[in-house]
Amino acid sequence: MSGPFDLTGQAALVTGANTGLGQAIAVGLAEAGCDIVAVGRTAPDETAELVVAAGRRLAAVSADLSTTEPVQRVVDAAYDAFGRLDILVNNAGIIRRADSLDFTEEDWDAVMDTNLKTVFFLSQAVARRWVADGRGGKIVNVASLLGFQGGLRVPSYTASKHALAGITKSLCNEWAAKGINVNALAPGYFRTNNTTALQADETRNRQILERIPAGRWGQPADIAGAAVFLASRAADYMHGAIVPVDGGWLAR
């Protein structure tokens, strides 16, 4: 493979790569030539098989990203595995659903810590290494269409994704001149574990499909191409962009 989307010889750290969007992104990057450092609480066995089938290597790093405790260990493990790190994909995230009148502080903190706090400090740790090494890199955050809208019964998730969009732009302002691209994907409604309850709700499922111009839920593989683009030199002049991958939801 050659051309602006070729990632041959590069290494990417992908959080939450064991399933869903994270797995699809990891496999897409591998198919573009990238070795993968898969970070998460469970072993990414299926992802590893798919990455190896694409002809690339995968190093698994066990870490609970609900706190910042493992951040430096994760970065060190990535460099130990492949001797380099070119791409960081902040995909790991959680969601809690409840009426705002009943929402608990525990659920609020759990979502904000995983979706926002750890993302910032992992990005900081990677960027510090890049700056110290005198080189740049690509950071791709996985935000959400709820970084543009309010949503229903997910106040902490919505707040975290709005804030993640803001951090993407803020870090772009500081790091673009250092050769570090910070951009984000904004997935719409995808068939993943996070949306199981919505898919099972007949009324809500119908309402969602009626709103999506593409007429279907996204499949995890639908996001891989956009992730490869933002991670590649094709996106070298993209900084602070929030790219919707939503079947046209936001255009409706």
SSE map:
Elements: E1 11-15, H1 20-31, E2 35-40, H2 45-53, E3 58-62, H3 71-82, E4 87-90, H4 105-132, E5 137-142, H5 155-175, E6 180-187, H6 196-200, H7 202-211, H8 224-231, E7 242-245
Parallel strand pairs: 1-2, 1-4, 2-3, 4-5, 5-6, 6-7
Largest sheet report? 7 strands, parallel
Count of folded domains: 1
**Unreliable residue stretches:** none
CATH level-four homologous superfamily name: NAD(P)-binding Rossmann-like Domain
| Shape estimate | globular
Q: How much β-strand is present in the residues?
A: 15-25%
Specify the oligomeric state. single chain
Structural Rg: 17 Å
**CATH top-level class:** Alpha Beta
Overall helicity: 40-55%
Query: In sequence order, what are the helices and strands, one letter per element?
Result: EHEHEHEHEHEHHHE
What is the count of DSSP helices, taking H or I runs of 4+ residues? Answer: 8
How many E strands? 7
The second-level CATH architecture is 3-Layer(aba) Sandwich
Widest β-sheet, arrangement of strands: 3-2-1-4-5-6-7
What structural class do the secondary elements suggest? alpha/beta
Mean pLDDT: 97
